[in-house]
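> example.struct
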């Protein structure tokens, strides 16, 4: 089972997942993950953002790395600075043929405007923890975004229209982190998330596994493990 978004927790054995970072201190750790785990270099605006050339240098050194999570979060302030960094990250990913995992909180319209500004230089994008409206889902999908469903999806208004969302490109994630690890073993968490999405969408497990492996190929430029 591929996990479209999780975090480093210090486990000895990595799983088949896109391991994202939220700050530069984790870059070296995620860069050293063995396959099938794929790492993503990210930065959020609750701390100083790194220079884009530093991210570019890491991507050049580690060809299997992607970008993420980066994004827009109204709670952190300086949305102008966040937007500038996000646009730079999107362009960097496009030029280096990498994907981007985005974190968007209370900034849906601004994020869609960023995609408009990016024009035709839009890389593959995973919208992490998607819970916005169906209208936003359709607009994002038209720009090539994959909408990633985290455990909290069942508590959002979107859950009432999730079968419509199933017609758009979607992925399944756990957003697993150190806090979650204290409560639930990872294998239990990933199995529970697939079961939840399957119940909500009325899809069987094998269909969801194939779906996530297809998204894995898009996000990592690698075929799923045999």
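> example.seq
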């Amino acid at each position: 089972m591929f996990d479209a978004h999780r975090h480093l927790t210090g486990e000895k054995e990595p799983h088949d997942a896109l391991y994202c970072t939220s700050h530069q201190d984790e870059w070296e750790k995620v860069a050293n993950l063995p396959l099938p785990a794929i790492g993503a270099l990210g930065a959020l605006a609750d701390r100083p953002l790194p220079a884009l050339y530093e991210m570019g240098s890491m991507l050049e050194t580690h060809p299997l790395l992607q970008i993420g999570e980066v994004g827009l979060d109204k709670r952190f302030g300086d949305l102008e600075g966040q937007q500038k960094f996000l646009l730079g990250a999107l362009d960097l990913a496009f030029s280096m043929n990498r994907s981007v995992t985005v974190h968007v909180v209370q900034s849906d319209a601004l994020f869609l405007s960023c995609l408009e500004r990016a024009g035709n230089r839009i890389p593959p994008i995973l919208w992490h923890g998607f819970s916005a409206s169906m209208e936003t889902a359709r607009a994002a999908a038209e720009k090539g975004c994959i909408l990633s469903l985290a455990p909290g999806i069942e508590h959002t208004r979107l859950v009432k229209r999730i079968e419509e969302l199933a017609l758009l490109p979607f992925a399944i994630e756990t957003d697993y982190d150190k806090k979650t690890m204290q409560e639930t073993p990872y294998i239990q968490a990933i199995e529970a998330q697939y079961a939840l999405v399957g119940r909500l969408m009325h899809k069987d497990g094998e269909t969801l596994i194939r779906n996530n492996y297809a998204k894995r190929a898009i996000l990592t430029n690698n075929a799923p493990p045999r």
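> remarks
The domain at 3-220 is CATH 3.20.20.140 (TIM Barrel).
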